[in-house]
Amino acid sequence: MDILTSLMDGFAVALTPTNIALAIFGCFVGTLIGALPGLGPVNGVAILIPVAFAMKLEPGSALIMLSCIYYGCMYGGRISSIMLNIPGDEPAIMTTLDGYPMAKKGKAAQALGISAMASFVGATVATIGLTFFAPLLAKAAIYFGPADYFALYVMAFATIGGVAGVNPIKTLIAAMIGLMLASVGLDPATGTARFTFGSYHLYDGFDPIVSIVGLFAISEVIMYFEREANGGADQAVPLNKGLPKIREMFAGFSASLRGSFIGFICGVLPGAGASLGAFVSYSVEKQVSDQDGTFGTGDPRGIAAPEAGNNAASGGALIPMLTLGVPGSGTTAVMLALLISLNIQPGPLLFERQPEIVWGLIASLYLANVVLLVMNVPMVGLFTRLLSLPQWLLMPVVIMVSFIGIYSISHSPFDLLVMIGFGVLGYVLRKLDISLVPVVLGLLLGADMENNLRRALSISGGDFAILFQSWIALVIYAFTALMLALTLAMARRRPKRETI
Amino acid sequence: MTDRIVGLLILAISITVLVVARGYEVGFGDPLGPAVFPQMVAVLAAILSLGMIFRPDPDPDWYRGTVRSKQLATLAVLIGYVVLLEPLGFSLSTTIATALLAVLFGAEIRKSIVAGVCVGGCLYLIFDSVLGLPLPLAPAFMG
Questions:
Q1: Closest chain A residue to B41 measured between Cα atoms?
Q2: Which of B3, B34, B131 sits opposite A432 (nearest CB)?
Q3: What region holds the DUF1468 domain (chain B) (predicted)?
Q4: Is B85 exposed, middle or buried (0-12, 13-18, 19+ CB in 10 A)?
Q5: Is B20 on the interface with A (CB under 8 A)?
Q6: 20 to 30 A from A469, CA-CA: which of A143, A162, A400, B65?
């Protein structure tokens, strides 16, 4: 029952007038960013983190606003999938399969209504799961020693690309690139300047936020011209008049429930995340209910299942991120960057030391779900109109906001140049089908991974055997091996697609 | 081919890391020191880079012509913006950069100038007045 008490305390934090206002603002801005074609949740949250700093919010409030932006982006992403057939991010790909055909049939409003409902169901199931499972995992994680944490990081890197990556070797290389970049700067333990090549600017290393905005947003801008040359954007399907009826929105309700549970489990698994959640939910739903071959032609259940799965998985992915400090996907990696930049160290101790932040966050996610559902159904017309915003206006504004945001953190033009550099790096990696998420993870987790390794070895006096002496570490390594085997099996079966 | 070149580059970087890290000293009570972890990563990266060198994927489509020039021009505008941000002041540099980017993204000249002025002005107002971020307002030579 103390979970419910904590949750009530959390609602007390989330339901202050300021925080409610921030939550509504976050949901609105998030949906807006999610709806804009080409800008996924990763970009949205990354660009707005510096803006949240600029507003000088308390850590708790900043966290609430940015998680609402995150959830809002997930909601908004379905709008461009359904209306334009352009998924905002990888998990949204599955929504285009039935969403776009349904919109083409003149049922765009219904498709958007169904997906809003399914997103709500998925996200709510995941938030309930988060409420009950996260504290349990946090309790278990208290027993983790440095060697166990090291094992955990090894697992994070070995499995992350796994399901998302096309070529497993390239995914692992991406992780190594991230870890190498993470070691640039002053070594905290000895004060040695590592790989700084004598430049004082590099003593602090690479700021994760600067790198993330560069890797994702700037590379997206460079990529844009190629996509334009490849035929450019499709015309948006016109939105039919009138709100969808309540009954219509419940079409495929059972499909969203099934999708939610599958998605949630996928989200909790390390390295799987929302893409897998949406993918598996859609495939399972197709197996279960596609008797007359209507899937792919605008079946409501084909919209509901992946949308619920996608949202449930992104909620589930918060569990390993909050309790262990190990994110499983691109968006949770950005959330981790956000926590770190707010000086909040995720991990089991977070639940003991700063319960108001964790529970405030969880309560605000419940709030965000409701706000998003209420906001999305009547206002969907406004959001769809944004799709016709010209790219020549949108892209420069996005670039300028990210530049000012980064500049406002440090007032250093050098950071902006670093960001452009990361943009070029991100572009080259994407061209080579090397996923960017492991690079970000490496950058974020590198320092902790090294610290835990060094701590473990200073306990053992330099004997590497300590890494394999605790049963927790051994279980993690065994699980890692299992996931790697699964990954290799999946990599053979799944078709090649664009890396994000 | 591209895979091979990048693989070789990663291999070269890994070897550089291994060599450079040898100079880092071990501290007291810290048997590993600052060198070992980067070296472990470098060794793994080197091994993995062999995978890219010997089993490369097919080449990606590199664009030439207009697309390539637009990409390079965008980068040039961004770098120019950063260099000129403090000397020219925020509003002026943002106005110029936004207008140039708008042209690159396919706007007519007149529209892009209007967009530049609006974006430069609005962002300055939002960030400086509403959010209270001190941004360099005037060009440096004007004091």
A1: A176
A2: B3
A3: 5-136
A4: buried
A5: yes
A6: A162
Contact (CB<8Å) B115/A218: no
Contact, B54 vs A392, CB < 8 A? no
Q: Are A341 and A410 in contact (CB under 8 A)?
A: no
Q: Is A164 inside a domain boundary? A: yes
State both tokens at A344.
Answer: 């909040």
Single out the residue of A350, A370, A367 nearest to residue A358, CA to CA. Answer: A350
**Are B135 and A454 in contact (CB < 8 Å)?**
no
Contacts of A390 in chain B (CB under 8 A): 107
In a domain, A499, yes or no: no
pLDDT in tens, A222-278: 888 887 777 655 556 666 655 666 666 677 778 888 888 888 888 887 665 667 778
Cβ atoms within 10 A of the Cβ of A356, count? Answer: 13
Write down the ipTM of this complex.
0.90
* Residue A498 within any structural domain of the chain: no
Domain parsing of chain B, residue ranges: 2-54, 65-142
| Amino acid letter, residue B129 | S
Predicted confidence (pLDDT) per residue in A29-84, tens digit: 888 887 776 667 777 788 888 777 777 778 888 888 888 888 888 778 778 788 87
The per-residue pLDDT for range A274-333, each reduced to its tens digit, is 677 788 788 888 877 777 777 777 788 888 888 888 888 888 888 888 888 887 677 788
Chain A positions touching B103 (Cβ under 8 A) are 392
What is the span of the domain harbouring residue A293?
2-493
> What's the number of domains chain A is made of?
1
Percent of chain A scoring above 70 in pLDDT: 89
Q: Are A458 and B31 an interchain contact pair (Cβ–Cβ within 8 Å)?
A: yes
Examine residue A500 and state whether it is found in any structural domain, yes or no: no
Q: What is the pLDDT of residue B21?
A: 83
Q: A400 and B98: CB-CB below 8 Å?
A: yes
How far is the CA of A230 from the CAs of A118, A234, A499, in angstroms? 33, 11, 17
Identify the H or E element spanning A193.
Answer: strand A193-194
